[in-house]
Amino acid sequence: MAYREREELFTGGNMRETGLSNRRMDGSTSSSTSLYMKEYDHLKSSHSLIDQQIEMAEITKENLQSQSKNLRFFQQKMNTISQKFPMINNLVQKIKLKKRKDSLILAVVISLCIIIMLLYIF
Coil, helix or strand for 122? Predict the structure, then answer.
């Protein structure tokens, strides 16, 4: 019984309901090996697709690690330069302070707009 159900699953449906028989055009019984071979081919293609995805993920990981290494190197160089030239370090600190100030002002403006909008709605 389970063997017949497995064959029906491989062929894509219940053969009795569709009116199909187990016989080929030439009258011989269809071998289950061809169905198993089809299933094997499907599994093999799935494995190759998964292998391709894993390979792409590994390449992406290597690229991200390389970028991370480059960014760390750049950051070390910038720190070295800023330590050698105090004037540049002072300029970088002023830029950071200005950036924080701008972020704070923007946050306050957005908060006020949201509060006004909520007061207007209710």
Answer: coil
